[in-house]
């Protein structure tokens, strides 16, 4: 098999965490700090264009509260606020673990049992990624991930390719031996720029985005009994996403 690893995005791909967990935690942190800011579902969709929690808060301030000032340097203030947000986020996951998306658990198990590595490339902070993997995947599945590339390990977040390049370097594999699974256009751009063929499972916030560069665009990975819907691309007659389809995608001569 040419396929040596599958690299997963986290938020939106492994679980639908954005609207009901990250967004809620941001709002709780704002309230705790006495800020009157509130990110509703629509506004959050717009803010998701900016990857990374700290970067997202910074963008929000510059766009919606340009005259906002604090008695400490802005980056410190944002860092503090984000720490608080992360605590709320992890608390939220402990209280109501967010379910894995369809097919994720099966695919991780299938990969592990056939010696195909699994890795993570996420914009979210490492502590938050770990919290999700622990609460939603649990043991031993969490330990199957050989490499976790996340958050501030790179300077430039998605859509820059850096986090995928870091994951590839840590895996000691080349892009043509791996497949990425993403849910957003920014994530797709990051993966494709790193040279990876990429499968998209569209999520709550990304349904209307452009995935022209994706190798295959699906509504979800599917299960034997619950077929996926192909939105774009060739599924080679398969009805759910498995390693045989992953292998066909990376060995296909099609560029995307
Ligand atoms: C998702 C993100 C993150 C989270 C917030 O990353 O964009 O910014 O919304 O996480 P990905 P932090 O889809 O690449 O996993 O607050 O931990 O930054």
What does this 3D model show about the protein?
Helices cover 41% and strands 13% of the residues. It has 9 helices and 7 strands, in the order βαααααβαβαβαβββα. Strands 3-2-1-4-5-6-7 form a 7-stranded mixed sheet. Helix 8 (185-193) links the parallel strand 4 and strand 5 (197-201). The longest helix has 22 residues, at 74-95. The mean pLDDT is 96. Xylulose-1,5-bisphosphate is lined by residues 9-12, 18, 22, 51-53, 122-125, 128, 151, 158, 187. Xylulose-1,5-bisphosphate binds at residues 9-12, 18, 22, 51-53, 122-125, 128, 151, 158, 187.
**First-to-last CA distance:** 19 Å
Largest sheet: 7 strands, mixed
What is the approximate shape?
Answer: globular
Ligands bound here?
xylulose-1,5-bisphosphate
Compressed to H and E, one letter per element, the order equals: EHHHHHEHEHEHEEEH
Low-confidence stretches: none
Radius of gyration: 18 Å
Strand content: 5-15%
């Amino acid at each position: 098999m040419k396929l040596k690893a599958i690299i997963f995005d986290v938020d939106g791909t492994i679980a639908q965490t954005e609207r009901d967990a990250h967004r809620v935690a941001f709002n709780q942190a704002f309230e705790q700090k006495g800020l009157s800011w509130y990110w509703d579902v629509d506004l959050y969709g717009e803010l998701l264009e900016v990857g990374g929690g700290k970067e997202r808060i910074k963008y929000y301030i510059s766009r919606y509260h340009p005259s906002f000032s604090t008695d400490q340097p802005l980056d410190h203030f944002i860092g503090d606020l984000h720490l608080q947000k992360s605590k709320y986020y992890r608390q939220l996951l402990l209280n109501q673990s967010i379910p894995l998306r369809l097919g994720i658990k099966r695919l991780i198990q299938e990969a592990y049992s056939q010696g195909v590595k699994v890795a993570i490339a996420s914009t979210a902070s490492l502590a938050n990624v770990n919290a999700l993997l622990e609460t939603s995947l649990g043991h031993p599945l969490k330990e199957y991930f050989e490499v976790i590339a996340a958050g501030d390990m790179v300077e430039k977040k998605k859509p820059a390719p850096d986090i995928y390049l870091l994951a590839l370097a840590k895996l000691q594999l080349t892009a043509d031996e791996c497949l990425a699974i993403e849910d957003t256009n920014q994530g797709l751009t990051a993966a494709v720029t790193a040279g990876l063929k990429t499968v998209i499972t569209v999520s709550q916030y990304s349904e209307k985005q452009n995935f022209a560069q994706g190798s295959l665009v699906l509504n979800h990975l599917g299960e034997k009994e619950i077929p996926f819907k192909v939105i774009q691309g060739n599924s080679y007659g398969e009805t759910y996403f498995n390693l045989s389809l992953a292998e066909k995608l990376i060995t296909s001569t099609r560029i995307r």
